[in-house]
Amino acid sequence: MNFRFQNLLGAPYRGGNVVVSNNTLLISSVGNRISVTDLLKSQTHTLPTQSSSNIARIAVSPDGNFLLAVDDRNRCQFINLPRRIVLHRISFKKPVSAVRFSPDGALLAVGTGKLLQIWRSPGFKKDFFAFELVRTFADCDAKVTALDWSPDSNYVLAGSKDLTVRLFCLKKFDKELAALNKPFLFLGHRDSVVGAFFGVDNKTNRVCKAYTVTRDCYIFSWGYSGNEGKFEELGGEGSEPPSPGTPEKGSDGDGKADVEANVGMMVKKRKGFDDNGGNFPEECGNLLHKGKWERLRKDNFSQAPAKLAACDYHRGLDLVVVGFSNGVFGLYQMPDFVCIHLLSISREKITTAVFNDLGNWLTFGCAKLGQLLVWEWRSESYILKQQGHYFDVNCLAYSPDSQFLATGADDNKVKVWTVSSGFCFVTFSEHTNAVTALHFMASNNCLLSASLDGTVRAWDLFRYRNFRTFTSPSSRQFVSLASDQSGEVICAGTLDSFEIFVWSMKTGRLLDILSGHEGPVHGLMFSPTNAILASSSWDKTVRLWDVFEGKGAVETFNHTHDVLTVVYRPDGKQLACSTLDGLIHFWDPIDGLLMYTIEGRRDIAGGRLMTDRRSAANSSSGKCFTSLCYSADGSYILAGGSSKFICMYDIADQVLLHRFQITHNLSLDGVLDVLNSKNMTAAGPLDLIDDDNSDVEEGIDKQTWGKLGYDLPGSMPNHGRSVIRTKCLRLAPTGRSWAAATTEGVLVYSMDESFIFDPTDLDIDVTPEAVDAALTEGQPSRALILSLRLNEDTLIKKCIFAVSPVDIPAVVSSVPLRYLQRLIEAFADLLESCPYLEFILRWCQELCKTHGHSIQQNSRNLLPSLKSLQKAMAILHQDLADMCSSNEYLLRYLCSTGANK
Predict the structure, then answer these.
(1) Which of 13, 703, 816, 835 is most deeply packed, by most CB within 10 A?
(2) What's the rounded Cα separation, in Å, for the pair 880 and 884?
(3) Which is higher by pLDDT, 802 or 230?
(4) What's the pLDDT score for residue 270?
C-alpha cells in the first residue's frame, strides 16, 4: 500500500539545458523534474523532488555532488545528487537565463535579467540562509545569455543580448583603483550572443584566447597578449573624459580657465595614480580584463537563414560544437575553424549541445520532438538515442512479467519501455492515426494495439515487426481492445458504429460483429476465469457477451449516466465501472446484483482552469473517473480522471485510502484550486497572453511543450496551455507497482525502494585491510559489502564463509540490490568447487526469499548469473542422484548376497 514515486517514462527531454557530470551521468530537465541517465549502465531515474514550474536552467558542481535547478518562476533548488534531496532553496528577482559553477565549486555565477550575480555555493552547511551574495555586476544593458569561468575562478565571461561580451574580474579594487573594476568589452557582434568561452594554453593552463558565438551563425576568435603599457593609459581610457561643463561666474566667456582647471585636475589624478604604482597588488600584472585583446578572425558557419541555437566548447581539445534551428549540428576544430562533422539529426531546432568531460561524446537535445541523443564523434556511433512521445500518452499496458511497459499516443506511435532501466528499446510507427488501446498477450512476446486508423495490429517483440493486422469490412475507429486468456480471440470496440468486432488470432479472419450498444464502446475486458466479455458504452449500459457460444448479450447492467470504463476483478467475481456523475459501481457478474457504490466527485475534483468561468468547487466538469484499475488481490481499486489526483479506494469499506497528487507543476493548468485575481486583465489571464515576440519575429516558433498543437484546430482548447489529467492507469501483474499516463508523462509508482543509500559509498578506505578489520570486529555484513565493492573473488568467498548459518538472513537482507549479480556468480562458483553444499544452498534460499521481487523485476539483467547458478545446481543434483542410485544398488547387492549365504 505504501506506493512511492519511482520513475518518469515517456519523456527523456522537454527543454532547457543539459549537463554531463562525472563524464557519464547525463542530467536533463523533464517538466518540473530532473532526470539522470547513466550512460554506462544504460539506466535512467527521475529525482523525487519537484519544482513549482517547468525547470529552465540547471548546473552541476565539478565534483558532481550538487545540482542547481532554476524554474520558470525564478525559484531555485540546491540538490544533493547522491542522496536525491533538496538542501536549500532561493528565489531570484528576475528570470534566470544562465547559471554556472566555478571550476573550484566554491562560487556560482547567475545571470538574472540584466544582472550578473556571484553567489557563494552553500555546500553541506546547515545555515538558515546558506546562499551568500558575493558580488553583483550591473554593466549589461540587456539579458545575460551566456556565462563562462576562467580556470582559476577569478574571471567571468558574460554574453548578453546587447550584442556585447564582457570580461569581469571578481576581485574588488579600492577607490584609488576604481578603473580596474570596469569590465573589458568584446564588441563587433551583430546579433545576440549565444556562447562565450575562455581558451587556455594547454602547457600553462592560463587563459590565452576567447571565443564568442552569435545567433547569426558567426564565431569570433580573440587573442590575449598581456598588459604591455596598459596601466599608463588607465587614467585616460578607464575613466570618463573631462567635460568642459557650464562656465562658472568669474571665468572668461570661452571657459578657458575652467578647461585648464579640469586638465590640471586630470594631470593631478594621473600623477597620483602613477605615484601609487608601487602599491598595486602583485596580480595586477596579469589582469585579463585590462590586458590587450585583439580579434584574430571572424568565421561564418554558412547555415543562413537558420539561426544558431546552442553551442559548447571543450578547452582540452579546442573543439566547438554548434546546433542550429534547422536541426543541423557542426563540430569544428579551433582556432583554424576546420569542420570535422556537419550533420542533420532532426527536423526541428536543436535546443542544447554539450560536450562531456573527456570531449569524446556529444549530447544534443530537441525540445519540440522530445529527442535526446549522445553521439561519439570519433567512431560516429550513438551512445544514447531516446525520444519521447510527441503528444500525450493515451494508453498503457504492462507485460505479464512486469518487465516491460508499452505506451501508445496521439503521435501514432507505440513504444515499449524497460521498466527497470526507464529506456525505450523499440518504437512501432505503422499506425496512421492516434493509438487508443494496448494489450499484452499472455505469452509476453506479442503486443496488440488499436487505433483510430481502423486497424488492430499485432507486434512481435522478438523480431520487432507487425506480423498481423486486423481490419473491419468498412473503415471504423477503434477505441478499446481485449483478448481472452487463451489468446485465440481478439475483440475491439468502435467509436463511430457502436459495434464490437471479433477476430481469430491464428487466421486473422473476422469471426463476428456484436451489435447492441447505442453509443461509443470505450471499455472492453474479458473475464479472467471464463470467456465472458464485458463492454461499457456511453449509452449508460454495461453488457456481458458470450463470445464463443455466439448468444450475443447475455446480461445488461443499466446506469443513470454514461459509463466511461469497465474492469474485472482478478478473480472474475466482481465488475467495476465508472459513470459520468463521478460514481464507481461494483457489480456481481454472476448474479447480476449491484454490490457497492463509491461516490468520488469530491475526491477527484481538480483545480480551476485559466479559462474557467466558475470556481473549482462549483465546476461540474471533469468530476468523474475515466480509468480504473484493480489491485492484484482485488481489495482496493485505483481511479483517475481529468484531475491532478489519483484516488485509491478500499472496496469492502468504500473509503478513500490515499490520494496521489501527480504533479505540483504550476506551468500546467488545473493544478491551482484558487486563481490569483491579480493575474486577470481585461484581455484575459496574463499567463495566456504571449507578449514575447523575439522568436516569432525570426520565423521560429517558441518551443514550449504546451504549445505544440496550438495551431491545430480543436487540438488544444485551453489556448494552447496543457491541462493536467490522467488518461490511463495500469497495475503491474506483480502488484508491486502501477503506472499512470498523465500530461507530464508516464509516472511509475512502486512499493519497492528504488534508491537505498549505501553508507559504504562514503568510505574512501575500501581496502582488503578494511574487510579484515570488519571481520575481526564481528561485522560480517559490512565486510561482505566491502568485499563486493572491491570485487575480489577470494575476499567475497572469505566473507561468505565467515558468516554463521544463524546470521545468514540478516546479512542477506543488508546486501544492496546492485551487488546481487556478483553474489549469485560467487555462489555458482562455490557450488562447483565447495564441499559445504548445505551452507551454500541456505545462502541461495535466503537470497531468493529476501530479494525475490527484485530478482524477478531484473531477471533479464540477472539471467546469465541465474543460469550459471541453475547449471551448478543441476550438475550437483545429477551427481547426488547418481551417487544415491549407485549406493542403493550396492546395498541391494550386498543384502541379496548376505541373504543367499
Answers:
(1) 13
(2) 6
(3) 802
(4) 36
